[in-house]
Amino acid sequence: MAEIVTLELSESLAKKAKEIAALTHRRLEDLLVEWIDRAISELPVDALPDEQILALCELQMEPEQQETLSELLAGNREAQLNDTEFKQLDELMKVYRHGLLRKAQAFKVAVERGLKPAIN
Fold it and tell me: Burial of 118 by CB count in 10 Å (0-12 exposed, 13-18 middle, 19+ buried)?
């Protein structure tokens, strides 16, 4: 059962969220629910133990996902995607961006903890 919650967002946050929702052809409510869900389902990178930090530093998409993403990106460049493929591309890009962000955060923490050398 879902529960209705009213949120008061700053003007700038609301504007950014609306822009992202429009760009991704999604309802604002769905986007906000996804963001909240993601925020509470993952521990912050700096709270993870060393072994998980190092594992995140090596994070890569699954080969099948990477292959599908490459094919969809090529189709998108040629404007040949149908609605289903476009949605699949959107979802895979979210996975890719999220993984890249977590990997970058993990590398920063690994350098701070002395687990990895800094790259200059």
Answer: exposed
Using only the alpha carbons of the chain, give its radius of gyration: 18
Choose among 6, 91, 11, 107: nearest CA to 54. 107
Q: How confident is residue 35, by pLDDT bands cut at 50, 70 and 90?
A: confident
Q: Are 21 and 33 in contact (CB under 8 A)?
A: no
* Domain ranges within the chain, ordered by starting residue: 10-41, 45-120
| CA dihedral for 77, 83, 84, 87, sign (positive or negative) | positive
Q: pLDDT digits over 57-70, tens only?
A: 999 999 999 999 99
